[in-house]
């Protein structure tokens, strides 16, 4: 099936506010050797889209530098990491049988080709992504989800948020029956953590804003705590023996305040810094109690395959807050930045 010559895309033309996104007719990418062309059915938004647009990631040795997820961005860049769609063209050296397959795209660019590879780049940041009608991706990064009961909109919610959440659960060694705390529980990754942790039969204590606690409880949290109170005091009461793990996307001062809530040998997994990226920590509390403080960035190829299995079986149904046409991408990013919603925001193509 041949793709048309041009397509509508939302391109980032520099760092800045929503005005840095422009809609343009651009050439449809031709799949190179080892790639396929995917017609995008839906593309979900993530905080990384906002921070990449703003250049908020800093650089080693210069935390205030304007940079993307892994360094300087080459503009113009089509944003959008999370893509569900259909393969419409196959490049040389790729499996011709992929044509016509409904797929979920692994957005990570890895440092090597093995199951435990580390993500060192991302679609929509280091390579053009899915804020477009079509996207060219590596053939080995598309996964057949033709038998999934999830819609394209639901599938598109999974790669970054649920992939990051699954990476945190796996790296943190969360097992059935354990008690975990999820911070920032109403956001994309936070809600994914609640759902996935509950699906593996962990007891979830979720921290979120007061107006979103009911939605977080419906997602699977056994206990919900208003972040405006003293959450760590309440967590100590809810789990007097300490919690097994904290799954944290907030960081900031909460790490030092919450570390005593871990049991002996407990794990603290960090995958975000919504509350600030600098901490003041008494390291003695770390080693004297055999605690683990672990950074977790996205997922590995093995994690993503496990996530695809979740999608195929429909074991978790992502919460979708709103959908938008691609032409409304600026409004979608503004709504994402307002943090008034619970669940994912998704761009859809006709």
Describe the 3D structure.
It is a single chain. The protein contains ten helices and 18 strands. It has 350 residues and is of the alpha/beta class. It has two domains: 6-161 and 299-348, Medium-chain alcohol dehydrogenases, catalytic domain (Quinone Oxidoreductase, Chain A, domain 1), CATH 3.90.180.10; 173-295, Medium-chain alcohol dehydrogenases, catalytic domain (Quinone Oxidoreductase, Chain A, domain 1, Alpha-Beta Complex). Strands 3, 5, 6, 9, 10, 17 and 18 form a seven-stranded mixed β-sheet that branches. Helix 3 crosses helix 4 and helix 3 crosses helix 9 (301-313). The longest helix has 14 residues, at 158-171. The model has no long low-confidence stretch (mean pLDDT 94).
Supply the key terms:
alpha/beta; Quinone Oxidoreductase, Chain A, domain 1; seven-stranded mixed beta sheet; six-stranded parallel beta sheet; 350 residues; globular
Write a short abstract of this structure.
By secondary structure, the protein is α/β, with parallel strands linked by helices. The protein has helices at residues 47-54, 152-156, 158-171, 188-199, 213-218, 231-238, 254-258, 283-287, 301-313, 329-338; strands at residues 6-12, 21-27, 35-44, 77-78, 82-90, 102-105, 108-110, 119-122, 134-138, 142-144, 179-182, 203-208, 223-226, 243-248, 262-270, 292-295, 320-325, 344-348.
Domains counted in the coordinates: how many?
A: 2
Uncertain runs: none
- Topology-level CATH name of the largest domain: Quinone Oxidoreductase, Chain A, domain 1
Q: How much beta, percentage-wise?
A: 25-35%
Distance N to C terminus: 18 Å
Would you count the extended β strands for me? 18
Order of helices and strands: EEEHEEEEEEEHHEHEHEHEHEHEHEHE
- Percentage of residues assigned to helices: 10-25%
SS field, number of helical segments: 10
């Amino acid at each position: 099936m041949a793709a048309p010559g041009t397509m509508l895309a939302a391109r980032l033309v520099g760092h800045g506010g929503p005005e840095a996104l422009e809609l343009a007719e651009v050439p449809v990418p031709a799949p190179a050797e080892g790639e396929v062309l995917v017609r995008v059915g839906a593309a979900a938004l993530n905080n990384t889209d906002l921070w990449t647009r703003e250049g908020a990631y800093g650089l080693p040795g210069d935390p205030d530098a304007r940079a993307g997820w892994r360094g300087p961005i080459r503009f113009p860049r089509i944003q959008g990491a999370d893509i569900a769609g259909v393969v419409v063209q196959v490049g040389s050296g790729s499996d011709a049988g992929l044509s016509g397959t409904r797929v979920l795209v692994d957005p990570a660019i890895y440092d090597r080709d093995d199951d435990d590879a580390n993500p060192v780049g991302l679609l929509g940041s280091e390579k053009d992504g899915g804020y477009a009608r079509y996207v060219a991706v590596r053939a080995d990064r598309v996964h057949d989800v033709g038998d999934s009961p999830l819609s394209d909109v639901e599938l598109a919610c999974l790669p970054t948020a649920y992939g990051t959440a699954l990476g945190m659960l796996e790296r943190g060694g969360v097992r059935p029956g354990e008690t975990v705390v999820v911070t920032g529980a109403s956001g994309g990754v936070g809600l994914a953590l609640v759902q996935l942790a509950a699906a593996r039969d962990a007891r979830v204590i979720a921290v979120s804003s007061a107006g979103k606690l009911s939605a977080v409880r419906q997602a699977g949290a056994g206990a919900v705590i208003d972040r405006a109170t003293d959450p760590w005091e309440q967590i100590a009461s809810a789990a007097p023996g300490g919690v097994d793990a904290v799954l944290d996307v907030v960081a900031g001062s909460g790490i030092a305040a919450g570390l005593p809530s871990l049991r002996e040998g407990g794990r603290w997994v960090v995958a975000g810094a919504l509350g600030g990226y600098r901490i003041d920590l008494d390291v003695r509390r770390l080693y004297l109690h055999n605690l683990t403080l672990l950074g977790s960035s996205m997922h590995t190829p093995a994690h993503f395959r496990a996530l695809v299995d979740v999608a195929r079986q429909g074991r978790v149904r992502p919460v979708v807050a709103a959908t938008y046409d691609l032409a409304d991408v600026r409004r979608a990013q503004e709504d994402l930045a307002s943090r008034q919603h619970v669940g994912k925001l998704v761009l859809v193509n006709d």
